[in-house]
Specification:
Layout (H helix, E strand, L loop, with lengths): L5 E2 L3 H4 L6 E6 L17 H6 L10 H16 L1 H21 L3 E5 L21 E6 L11 E4 L1
Parallel strand pairs: 2-3, 3-4, 4-5
Antiparallel strand pairs: 1-2
Helix pairs in contact: 3-4
The structure holds iron/sulfur cluster (SF4).
Iron/sulfur cluster (SF4) binds next to helix 2.
Length: about 150
């Protein structure tokens, strides 16, 4: 599938297939790499140990793309969220066509409080989960959380 913002090319995401899930995620440039901090709770040690440069993250064009997406998230939020929703709708359709459930992981390499950001056109009945290093998720969060 071709997505503007999301990725499905990630070894961890691919593992979900065996359990009936089609998983997609969003890679941003972690910590302050883009000039904007998407990991407000991270220490410099956390940033140094981050998996951002693992796998495809090793390639300069991938790093460039993550930085540009992150800048767009801050500088052009409305259009960024529109594109994200279009990607999610595509993923919903694709998951259905494969007989799989969809999971969306928006913090592949960031620690943004997605539960506080309204995604236009989307109600969160689809399985959206976030991976966080922080403890700020409340029990009322609509997002399923796993910890690194
Ligand atoms: S994505 Fe996670 S591990 Fe990487 S810098 Fe941010 S908080 Fe640390």
């Amino acid at each position: 599938m071709h997505y503007k913002l999301l990725t499905e090319n990630n070894a961890k995401l691919a593992k979900g297939r065996d359990f009936g899930y089609y998983s997609v995620g969003l890679h941003l440039a972690p910590y302050k790499l883009s000039g904007f901090n998407v990991c407000p709770m991270a220490s410099q040690g956390c940033a140094a140990a981050c998996l951002n440069t693992a796998g495809n993250g090793n390639y300069p064009n991938v790093q460039k793309s993550r930085i540009s997406k992150t800048r767009r998230f801050f500088e052009d939020r409305v259009n960024f969220l529109d594109d994200l929703c279009i990607d999610i709708f595509k993923a919903v359709k694709h998951a259905k066509s494969q007989g799989l459930k969809l999971s969306v992981r928006l913090n592949l390499t960031s620690d943004i409080r997605w539960e506080t950001i309204k995604l236009p056109h989307i109600n969160r009945r689809l399985w959206t989960y976030s991976l966080t290093c922080s403890s700020w998720i409340t029990p009322k969060s609509p997002i399923v959380v796993t910890f690194e």
